[in-house]
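Input for the complex:
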Amino acid sequence: MKGLFLTFEGPEGSGKSTIIQLIYKKLIEEGYPVICTREPGGIDIAEQIREVILKKENTAMDSKTEALLYAASRRQHLVEKVIPALNKGYIVLCDRFVDSSLAYQGVGRGLGIDEVYQMNLFAIGDVLPDLTLFFDCPVEVGLARIHSDGQREVNRLDLESLQFHHQIYQGYLDICERYRDRIKKINANQPIEDVFNEVYSLIEEYICHIEHS
Ligand code: TYD
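Predicted:
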């Protein structure tokens, strides 16, 4: 594969979805071939799975069912969209990927990081991101942001307890430590322009590094 696979991770309201759009625009302006996508979803079949997972009424969903559905949606999205784009040399910006499952299902739902990773290997094979940006932002700050955003639709996971969101945050810190070569932390508790600059310089540095290696 010739392209570059960049994933954006973080707790609710960490600002990654806003920044990913700004990064997409900037990379297009700079003349890079780039696509921007998201999980769960990004293509028709995966969007259909997303509806089942996030539907507020599906409170009976078992944690393992939830983890399997995320992995199923991930597989379809990867095969139909991400891998073909990488093969054509595109930079793929993806809002959430396997680390979200490790944090939310592995730690938040208590299924275990290693167990959820093993299960996901069946879905992703050897496709891991080249670089992952973790948007580090205190849980309360993130939740206050989403609650003040009237446009955002509330989903099943948003309705979980504060403790669940704290567990996810701690889970992410653990995952950052485990994969410290791949995951870079971003200070997401600062104005958007500053977050954008921090993210863009990391991406530029990474592109420069691979162009010269
Ligand atoms: P979304 O509305 O896209 O939220 P966000 O803007 O925070 O990304 O909803 C995605 C939700 O699904 C979010 O609560 C995180 C959760 N999620 C998992 O629990 N596991 C996963 O593997 C993925 C990809 C997402």
